[in-house]
Amino acid sequence: MNTELQNTQVKPRVTEQASPASNSSANKFGNKSSNKEVKGEDSTPRKGRIQRQEDIELIKSRLQDADAFLFSDYRGLSVKQIGEVRKKLTTFSSSMHVHKNKLFKRALQELGYSDALQHFLTGPTAHVFIRGEASPVIKTLIDFEKKEKYSISVKGSYIEGQVYDQDQTEALSKIPSREQLLANLMGAMNAPAQKLASGLQDTIAKLARSLKALEETL
Predict the structure, then answer these.
(1) How far apart are CA 151 and CA 26, in angstroms?
(2) If you placed Cys at 168, which of 44, 148, 150, 164 could pair as Cys (CB 3.0 to 4.6 Å)?
(3) How many helices (H) and strands (E) in the chain?
(4) Is the Cβ–Cβ distance between 94 and 129 less than 8 Å?
(5) Distance of alpha carbon 74 from alpha carbon 86, whole angstroms
């Protein structure tokens, strides 16, 4: 036997282990990691549920503070136009917000509102919370649509415990506000005596026409 071959040593084969950096690089490109992520109490799904409940409570608070509220379709409005509408509504101590329809439905259900309101919560919907009289607010939104040509329209409303559809809500905008009626009355009283009767009749006739228009929509 060849002595040179006998003295030759066979070196054991060493398997190189991947460094943490190489594992990280592999995972970045889609390889599955052997470590499974365990979701704790502060996981994203739980945070999402908490946020949804907070949003529902916010809607409920706004509904409870409002004297009335209405729904409007605002698709097509620019950010600037939405800001202008909101600014105008503040002059009536009212506000416009956009909530998810699903969360708004949940808030209505929890507060015991009529299921008839669910009909208005489809598609892009802005929610207007009204403090005080509703007719000036409705008229303002209609003026934005008719006069300013804004892409906003009234879908329906809830006023003094009653649900009104689009036509009925628009009819309510024609009813003079309390301030307008008082102003007309004071103007008639300050006029000469011979014009007093006619002034009162005009005020009453105007109110009667508005009520009749509303009655025809009911």
Answers:
(1) 52
(2) 164
(3) 9, 5
(4) yes
(5) 12
Q: Tokens 């949003």 — which residue?
A: 55
Q: Phi/psi of residue 71, each to 5°? A: -115, 140
Q: Is the dihedral of CA 57, 85, 212, 200 positive or negative?
A: positive
DSSP summary character for residue 73: E
Run of H or E residues at 126: strand 126-130
Predicted confidence at residue 46, as pLDDT, reads 85
pLDDT of the residue at 176 = 74
- 3 state SS of 70: strand
Closest CA to 92 of 130, 51, 38, 37: 130
User: Is the separation of the CB atoms in 68 and 130 below 8 Å?
Assistant: yes
> How far apart, in whole angstroms, are the C-alpha atoms of residue 161 and residue 169?
13
Residue keyed to tokens 């009819």? 171
Residue 79 has pLDDT above 60, yes or no: yes
Band of residue 3 on the pLDDT scale cut at 50, 70, 90: very low
Determine contact, residues 34/81, Cβ cutoff 8 Å.
Answer: no
Q: Which amino acid is at 65?
A: D
Residue-wise DSSP of 144-180:
HHHTS--S-EEEEEEETTEEEEHHHHHHHTTSPPHHH
pTM (predicted TM-score): 0.65
pLDDT in tens, 33-59: 444 444 444 456 888 899 999 999 999
Give the model confidence (pLDDT) of 192-216 as tens digits. Answer: 655 556 666 776 776 667 666 666 6
